[in-house]
Amino acid sequence: MKTEIHTPASDPGADMVPEVGEVKAGFPVMSDPTGDTTPLDLNKLVIKNPASTFYLRVSGESMSGDGISDGDLLVVDRSVEPYDNCIAVCMLDGEFTLKRVELHEDHALLIPSNARYKPIRVTAENQFAVWGVVRYVIKKL
Questions:
Q1: Spatial distance between the Cα atoms of 2 and 60, rounded to a whole number of angstroms
Q2: Catalytic residue numbers, as ranges
């Protein structure tokens, strides 16, 4: 997995795009999305721990079953304690990988969500660390 690390933007003078309301994803509802506008700072919305949060660009398709595709942008927080079934950026034997983490007493499994890839069993013989837990996925449609 190619890893690009970017720190969150923290320029208080940066232009913010307004949040203009909500839109129903069910049956159509008449509303005016151009009414009252409130500035929306995406960094404040998706980043709870700025000192430990990074953006990473995804390279590869092993997590496509979870809706994570090549080119997507991840918001990864290193301060979040890894938990069973979380999606995380892991360091395995000196390489970064993005996988769902299944925690067991004597091992961990790194589970891809694309059936073309096999799970990776992690044991005490491996150098392994959960580098950060994915909090958000930002994608271009």
A1: 8
A2: 62, 99
User: What is the rounded distance in angstroms from the CA atom of residue 81 to the CA atom of residue 100?
Assistant: 14
Exposure string over 109-136, b if 16+ CB within 10 A, otherwise e: ebbbbeeebeebebeeeeebebbbbbbe
Query: How far apart are alpha carbons 105 and 84 in whole angstroms?
Result: 11
Backbone angles phi, psi at 5, to 5 degrees: -105, 130
pLDDT digit string, tens, across residues 71-104: 999 999 999 999 999 999 999 999 999 999 999 9
pLDDT above 70 as % of the chain: 75
Alpha carbons 83 and 108: distance in angstroms, whole number: 11
First to last CA, the chain: 22
Q: Whole-model pTM? A: 0.76
Q: Could you give the C-alpha distances from 1 to 79, 94, 128, 135, in angstroms and in order?
A: 22, 12, 15, 18
Nearest alpha carbon to residue 70 among 85, 57, 87, 54: 57
119: DSSP letter: -
Contact 19, 41 (CB under 8 A): no
